[in-house]
Write a structure and sequence with these properties.
This protein is an alpha+beta fold and about 170 residues long. It has one domain: Umud Fragment, subunit A (Ribbon). The chain has 2 helices and 12 strands; from the N terminus they run αβββββββαβββββ. Strands 1, 2, 3, 4, 7, 8, 9 and 12 form an 8-stranded antiparallel sheet that branches. Strands 5-6 form a two-stranded antiparallel ribbon. A two-stranded antiparallel sheet has the order 10-11. The model has no long low-confidence stretch (mean pLDDT about 90).
Length: about 170
């Protein structure tokens, strides 16, 4: 084997190792599917930028959109919005017409968060599987690209439908 070939393999292995470290510890670019986060995220062809700084709920706040492992199926991940922090009292399901549901509250335990989809009618979330341990949080969604849009939109001046995902609870 030539030194050039060995050097190329070594460089490739180093690049793959660096890519793995970045993906697992710092940043992820991943596709989302489903209607639970409409209108914040599209049903198809939306790709989110996930900051792993917020892994395990670190520095997360009410209103942040996060990626987390699904509590009742840890092989799957979901995107949801934090709607309750540890110690908060939450109305369990304000979307139900049942009068008893309008008076059922839960206190979010320490080390847990309450998450819901922005589209309550089409979301399986804490209303279904209860408060979620912060340890299931993969990271915070900071931006998204809508690949249904053209590569360059001169009207909005965006590349691949780029948009920031903001904490919409900060304005309340």
């Amino acid at each position: 084997m030539s030194n050039a070939w060995i050097g190329g393999v070594t460089t490739t292995v180093k690049c793959l190792a660096l890519l793995h470290i970045v993906h697992s510890r710092y940043y992820e670019f991943t596709q989302t599917r489903g209607e639970s986060m409409l209108p914040t995220l599209n049903m198809n062809n939306d790709y989110v930028h996930v900051s792993k700084w917020y892994r395990n709920g670190r520095d997360c706040h009410m209103g942040d959109c996060v990626v987390l492992y699904k509590p009742n199926d840890p092989k799957k991940r979901v995107c949801k919005r934090i709607t309750g922090m540890p110690g908060d009292y939450i109305l369990v399901d304000p979307s139900l017409d049942d009068p008893d549901a309008k008076t059922t509250f839960i206190k979010v335990p320490m080390g847990h968060i309450w998450v819901t989809g922005d589209n309550l009618a089409h979301s399986l979330d804490s209303r279904t599987y209860n408060a979620v341990p912060m340890g299931l949080v993969v990271g915070k969604i900071v931006a998204a690209n809508d690949l249904n849009k053209p590569a360059w939109d001169s009207h909005t001046r965006t590349l691949f439908g780029f948009r920031w995902i903001l904490n919409n609870f900060n304005n309340i």
